[in-house]
Amino acid sequence: MQILNNERTTMKKILLYSLSITITSLLLLAGCSQPKGADKLIGKWKVNFDGENAEAIYEFSETDMSMQFTETGKPTKRIETTYRVISDNGKILSLEVIHPTTKLKGIFIFTFEQEDTKATLVDPGKYTVTLIKI
Asked: Is-above-0.90 flag for pTM?
């Protein structure tokens, strides 16, 4: 009976060690993954509107977003708001953005391209623009 208990104890230890190694390996692999879209988004992005003498600068921190539009060389009032990440697979990023005045929520979808220095943005009105990281 004592031998059987020793074998069970040994098997439990082996199983525990195997499980620990597997979990540790998975955690290490997760830590080495590509940067998420939310990390790539942080910074300043510029939009040039084709055929118009206008541009927009979007700036993102971890939770805040600001937009500054310029038309014919004259800047408009800077718009500041907050956002939260809804989904993020590293290439496509969905954000819920809160309108600073109305407090309505809208979904912005970013698709990253060209080594993450270029992105396509689709706003809640389904208007699409191309952003270049500056």
From this structure: no
| Residues 52 and 116 grouped into a single domain | yes
Q: How far apart are the C-alpha atoms of 84 and 103, rounded to whole Å?
A: 14
- Centre a 10 Å sphere on the Cβ of residue 121 and count the other Cβ atoms it contains: 19
DSSP 47: E
pLDDT tier for residue 2 given thresholds of 50, 70 and 90: low
Residue 119: how many CB atoms within 10 A of its CB?
A: 24
Lookup: tokens for 13: 């230890």
Based on the domain organization, do 111 and 61 belong to the same domain?
yes
Q: What is the CATH number of the domain that holds 50?
A: 2.40.128.20
Residues 54-84: tens digit of each pLDDT: 899 999 999 999 999 998 888 888 999 999 9
Instruction: Give the chain's domain count.
Output: 2
